[in-house]
Amino acid sequence: MTGYARAQGSDDRRRWVWEARSVNGRNLEIRCRVPQGFDRLENPARVAVGGRLKRGNVSLTLTLTSERQGKPLRINRALLADLATLVEEVRRTTGAAAPSADGLLRVRGVIEEEDEGEETEEAVAALDKALMTTLGEVLEALAAARAAEGRALARVIDGHVTEIEGLCKRAADRAQAQIGTVRTRFEGQLAELLDRTPALSEERFAQEVALAVGKADVREELDRLAAHIAQARTLLADARPDNPVGRKFDFLCQEFNREANTLCSKSADIELTRIGIDLKGAVERMREQVQNVE
Predict the structure, then answer these.
(1) Secondary structure, 3-state, 25-91
(2) Per-residue model confidence as pLDDT tens digits over 202-254
(3) Would you say domain 147-290 falls under CATH 1.20.140?
(4) CA distances from 209 to 13, 50, 219, 268, 291 (A)
(5) How many other CB atoms sit within 10 Å of the CB of residue 73?
(6) Residue 263, pLDDT score
(7) What pLDDT is attached to residue 141?
(8) How would CATH label the architecture of 3-69+124-143?
(9) The whole model's pTM is what?
């Protein structure tokens, strides 16, 4: 969900530039910086971002520059007259030499830039429309940049799904051997009990063995993991700018992790436990990448 875009526009009075930056984020967070006097654009800008993006930390910046090199200057004659009166009074009372005209003109406020006048409501509305049009351009470019990253990210996530699928196949192969291992271990543990008085009945023995084997049966977890793998591939195939799948993938990763934990807890075989730990690691690596998916 990272990306950068820039778009610019102008009219007969000014030039402007919109910049948009996006970094990864679980939710959509928008920061908008506009020049003083343009606060009215913040809410429409946020709405525009929310209409295109669903996740990520997005920063918008609007910069405006006057197209004119400088405004006409004028003399503040009222201030200059007041200064002249004060200068004459000081000269009479102190005998100090009067300042030159150049010195008076350097006093702050004597020379001012002429006010160009407030823009009409129609002009303001036209400017806002032009600014929002440029914002639309920059958001379109940002979405395109994020989509390009998404295509690369899809290949990475698909690699994680393939790794998880391979580990599940290894776990399925090992789980078949685990049932015999559990039965053998349980028979050895109960052999002493069968020799004791009163002896454990054959029926009770069979029930205990069946219970132990059932607890160690991970076929249900493997079936659910296979279903999750199929769902992950479906989400990757369906991911589009108008069909965000990031939150669904978040939930799916939680389910992957749940089944991996259960598989480890049921394992009675050291090799199956190792596979389960590797599976949890693969799921975590995929989850980290999924945080970047819109």
Answers:
(1) CCCEEEEEECCCCCHHHHHHHHHHHHHHCCCEEEEEEEEEEECCCCCCEEECHHHHHHHHHHHHHHH
(2) 666 666 666 665 666 777 888 999 999 999 999 888 877 667 788 888 889 99
(3) yes
(4) 87, 58, 17, 14, 44
(5) 9
(6) 87
(7) 92
(8) 2-Layer Sandwich (3.30)
(9) 0.58
